[in-house]
Amino acid sequence: MSMKEDVDANVETALAGVGRAAVAGAEIVCLPELFAWRYFPTERSSRQRAEEIPGKISRELAASAKDNRVVLVGGSIYEKAGKKRYNTCLVFDEHGRVITRYRKVHVPQDEHYYEQDYFQPGGGYAVAKTRHGNLGTLICFDQWYPEAARVNRLMGADILFYPTAIGWVRGIEPIEGDWKGAWEAVQVGHAIANSVAVCAVNRVGTEGSTTFWGGSFVCDQFGKVLFRAGGEEGVYTVDVPTGLGKLVEEGWGFMRNRKGRTYSAISKGA
Question: Is 105 part of any domain?
Fold first, then answer.
């Protein structure tokens, strides 16, 4: 999706996309990060209003999941929870019921990505058990962290979904290398290391000085990219081989050969 200034118009576009995906045979549908809004954290302050859950947007997502008989990974919502604000992903089953609520744990604070001015970090992870498998939901900046992917796998995830909003910023040179290539590569690595499929869903279009590169992709449990989108809006369906993860684990033993007692340094000082 590319987002407009009008929240209701963005929601309408998203719901139309869910319907199109369902007609095309999709069983699980995923929306981008903060799909109802222009990406407001490019600025240090904004008048953008957060939404309570349940609220108008979450109810519309629930109705869409039910009407289309799909499991819906609802991108993410700018959530108001009392005095706190979160970047929150809801998963709905095909009856429109909320299965999980995940609040983004890794919240960046960089030039044009001032998310810590808006979102508090969530306190843990969530895996949604569905009739199509167990779905781990992580959000954008989470995708750079192998620990988050591994914890989701340990919680039983078969597929990792990453609703995303990332792109190039005018005036900031990627001196360290190819941002987009690294973005895809690190997530493909999570897929292989954890024997899980990965689905990353990024927004597109130019908003102010940021051009979101799209590039949404799906890879299988051994890192083969099954589909890669370009930089335009679209609704795409991809068939994922559900049994490959078990085959990879049986052959390579990434999980059964773990040595958890040697990993304590990961959490020190965190």
Answer: yes
φ, ψ for residue 89 (rounded to 5)? Answer: -110, 125
In whole angstroms, how far apart are CA 182 and each of 155, 176, 178, 193, 219? 26, 10, 6, 16, 15
- For the question of residue 33 being annotated catalytic, the response is yes
Percent of the chain residues past pLDDT 90, beyond the cut? 96
246 catalytic residue (yes or no): no
Q: Is residue 268 part of a domain?
A: no
Please indicate, yes or no, if residue 175 is contained in any of the structural domains: yes
Q: Is residue 36 part of a domain?
A: yes
Residue 24, domain extent:
7-259
Q: Which of 30, 140, 199, 219 is catalytic?
A: 140
- Return the bridge partners of 102, or none: 89
CA pair distance 93, 99, nearest whole angstrom: 6
Q: Give how many domains the chain has, as a whole number.
A: 1
Annotation says 140 is catalytic: yes
Low-confidence ranges of the chain (pLDDT < 50): none
**30, 89, 94, 104: which one is catalytic?**
104
